[in-house]
Amino acid sequence: MSADHDGANLLEVRGLTKIFGTLTACDHIDLNIAKGEIHALLGENGAGKSTLVKMLFGSLEPNSGEIFWNGEAVRITSPGMAKKLGIGMVFQHFSLFEALTAAENIALSLDDGSPISSIAAKARALSFSYGLPLDPDSLVGDLSVGERQRIEIIRCLLQTPQLIILDEPTSVLTPQEADKLFETLERLRSEGKSILYISHRLEEVKRICDRATVLRHGKVVGHCNPREETASSLARMMVGNEVKAVVRAPAEGIETAAPLLEIRALSRKPATPFSIPLKNINLNVRAGEVIGIAGVAGNGQGEFFESVSGEVLQQDAASVRIRGKDAGALSITGRRLMGAAFVPEERLGHGAAPRMKLSENLLLSRHATDGKVFVGTGGAVKSAAVYAAAQRIIVAMDVRKSAPDPEAAALSGGNLQKFIVGRELDRSPAVMVVNQPTWGVDAGAAAHIRQALIELARSGSAVLVISQDLDELFEISDAIAVMHNGELSKPLPIADATFEKIGLLMGGAEPGHAEHVLETA
Amino acid sequence: MMRLELVKRPQRSMLFSALSPFIAFALTIIAGAILFALLGVNPLNAFEIYFIEPISQVWQLHELAIKAAPLILIAVGLSVCYKANIWNIGAEGQFILGGIFGSAIPVLFPGFEGPLVLPLMLLFGMVGGAAYAAIPALLKTRFGTNEILTSLMLVYVAQLFLDWLVRGPWRDPQGHGFPQTIQFNDSAVLPELMPDAGRANWGFVFALIAAVLIWVLMSRLLKGFEVRVLGSSPRAGRFAGFGLNRMVFFAFLLSGALAGLAGISEVSGAIGQLQPVISPGYGFTAIIVAFLGRLNPLGIVAAGLVLALTYLGGEAVQSALGISDKVARVFQGMLLFFVLGCDTLIHYRIRLVGVALANGAAKLNAAPKLKEAR
C-alpha cells in the first residue's frame, strides 16, 4: 500500500509492531483506512487483530511504527486521546458497569457533565433513529449481551467519531438485527464516517465491506476487495488452509431413544424487575440428538440456562429431570454428578476465573465429578493429575497459548472457549447444555467446537445448544426451538426448519406459540 | 494544569511483587528518619534503639516471640478472609472474646486443676472467638449487612464487656478492688518454652503451626481453591458449585477461632489473669501483618516478627529517649501505607496528564466534534 498523503486516508498505519516478551503480536502492520469506507480486518484468533486495534485505540502502546491521522503523525497514548481524535470503539468484551443504568454508563464515558436525563433522551433518540432499540433507564446487569452491545454502539455514536472500530459486532445479533446494523453502518458510511470492521463471518464481510486487510500470525498477508473474493478464498487467506466444514452424521433412532434431559413446565419469576420470567417451558432432549434454542438476545435464555444448570434452584424438583431422575432441587454440583455438563455464555468471570491458571479452571467445574482423580484424601488437590488433564484438553481442542499453563485471561476468546468446552467434553457427559458455544470465536475454532458437540451427541449424549447464531444452529441441530419472551416454542425438526420460519418465531410472530408445547406436554 | 491518573499496567512485575514489602519497609525507615530528625533526635541513634537493641539479647528475642505470636495467629486467619474477599476487621473483638471464654474455666472453677484444664481453655478460647465472629457472618448472610462495619463495631462491644466483667462479676474478691480476675492456677497457665532463656510461651509454636496449616489449606486443599475462586470471581465460584454464604461462615469462623486462640494464649501465657485491657491492638495490627505478608501465611510469619519489633521498639524509645510509645503506631501506620502504595503501583502506573497537551491533541481535527458533544 502506498503511503500517500493526499488527505483521502483518514487513518494510515505504517510498520506498527507490538512485542510481548518473545511473541511478536503485530509485526510491521501496514493499514490504510479511507474516509467513508467500511474496512474489514480479518484473521483467526491470535492473528493480532485485537492487539492492532488496541494500539489504534490507545490501550496499548506500539514498540515501533507510525500512525497518521488525517495525514498528521499522532501518538495515541490513551483511549481518551483516541476518542478526542475521533476514534470510537465497540469492544467484543464490553466495559459496562452492571449496577448502573445504560444512560449512566453512557454518561460516564462522555465525561462532559450533562445531566443523565438529557443523555438518556439523546441515547433514546439515537437508538431509535439507528434502529437499535434500547431503554436507557434499564440496569445493565439485567440486560442481555445483545442489548449491552447496543449500549456500546450508542455510547460510541454519541461521541460522533470519524472512525468506528467494531469488534465482532454481529456475533450477538439475529439475522434481522444484523440486517439493521448493516443499514446503520451503511448510513454511517454515507455520512462520510469510516468503519473498521472486525469479523470472522465472511459472508457479511463480503456483503458490507469495501476493502479488507487480512492478518495471519501478526503479519498482513494481503489486502483485497472482499466483493471480488469468495468466502472460501477469504477463509484460505485467513487460516492459511481450508476450513473443515462441519459434518453432521444423520441421527438414527432418535425418536425411540430415552430423553436424558427433560424440562417440564418450568417457570421462573423474574429475579429482578428487568429480567425475563420463564413461562411453562417444556422440552425433551434425547440421547443422540442436538437440540438448538434460537432467540433474540435477552428473551430469557440466560435465565433458562441458570435454571437448567442449577445455579438457580427450582421449587418443583420435577421441572428439570436428568437421566430420568428429578434434578430441579439439586445444585449445579448435584446435577453434574448426575452426568450433566454446562458451558455458560460469559467466558471470563463465569465459565472461568480470569486470574487463575487453566489447570485451576479445569478444577473449577470438575472438582466434584472427578473427585477421585483430582482430589485426594483430606481434600488435597492432586495438582499433577489436574495439570495432566488440562494438558490433555489443550491438545485435544488445539488450544493455543503462550505458556504451559497460563491464566485464563491471557488466552484469546476463542482459545479460552475451546478450553471451556473441552473441559466438559473430556468428561463425556450424558447431558451437555451450552449457551453461545462460539460467540466471538473464529471460523476454525468454531468449526472445531461444533463438530465436537455433534460427535458428543452421536456417541449417545443429549446436547442442548442455546445460540443467537442461526447459521450455527442450522449447522449442528437436529431440531430447533425458539425462545421468545420467556416462552419456548415446540422444536422444529431441522428438515422442516427454514431461516424464515425460525426468524418469525424469534420475532414472536406466532401468537401463543406456547400452547403447542402444552399439547405435547 | 496537571492531573494525576492511575493507569492499569498490562502486566504485573513478578520481581516487584516480591520486592514490594522490602521497598515498603525501606520507605518506612526513610520516613521514620525524617520523623526522628524533626523530633530533634539523631535518627541513627533512634533506629539503633528502636530496631537493634530490642533484639540484641536472647531474652529479648523471647519478648519478640511473645508479641509476634498473637499477630501471626490472627493474621493467618485474616489472610483466608481477605483472600475470599470477606472483610473481617473485628479480630480484636474476637481476640478478647477468646480470652474471656477461655478464662471462664480458671476464673469460675479455680479448684479445677490437671492436664485437661489447658486444652479445654484453648478450645473454649477458639469457640469464643469463632462464636463472636459468627455474628457478623450471620448478619451478612441473612440481612446483607456490611461485615466491615459490623465486625468493627463488635470490637467496642467486646472491649466494654471485658471491662465490665473484670470490674464486676469476675473481679478478684481479694484483689484490693483492682479491676482484674484472680491469678490463674498453675495448670491454667500456658507453659514457657525455655524458662531458663526467656518468657516465650507455647503461643509462638501455635502461631507457627497455624501458619503452616493455613499454608497447606490455601495452596494444597480444595477448600483453599474454593476460597480463592470465590474471592477472585464469585460468579465463577457459583458456577463451580461453591456457596458464597457457606464461605462467609467458613472464613469468619476460622479467623475468629484463630483470633480467639491468640486471645486465650495471651491471657493464660503472657498475662496470667484477665485485665480491663488484654491487647495493645493486636487485632488491628494483624491486618497490617496480613497485608505486609502478602496474604501468604509464610510471609505473615516474617511480617509478624517485624510488626512485633515495632511494639518493642516503641517501648524502647519511650524509656531511652522519652518519645511517646505511640510512635509504634505511627511506624505501623506508615508501613501499611507504604505496602498498599507499593501494591497499587505494581498494578497501576501514575501518569501526569497535562490538560494543555490533551487540548492540543483534540485541536488536531476534532474541534467541531467536541463542540457538538458538549
TrEMBL record, chain B:
GO cellular component, one term: plasma membrane
Sequence intervals crossing the membrane: 21-44, 64-82, 94-112, 118-139, 148-166, 202-222, 243-264, 284-309, 330-350
Keyword Transmembrane helix: yes
Organism: Mesorhizobium neociceri
GO molecular function annotation: transmembrane transporter activity
UniProt membrane topology term: Multi-pass membrane protein
InterPro entries per record: ABC_transp_permease
Subcellular localization(s) per the UniProt record: Cell membrane
Domain of life: Bacteria
Full protein name: ABC transporter permease
Major site of localization recorded for this protein: membrane
Keywords: Cell membrane, Membrane, Transmembrane, Transmembrane helix
Keyword Transmembrane listed: yes
A Pfam family the protein falls into: BPD_transp_2
Taxonomy of the source species: Bacteria, Pseudomonadati, Pseudomonadota, Alphaproteobacteria, Hyphomicrobiales
CDD domains from the UniProt entry: TM_PBP1_transp_TpRbsC_like (cd06580)
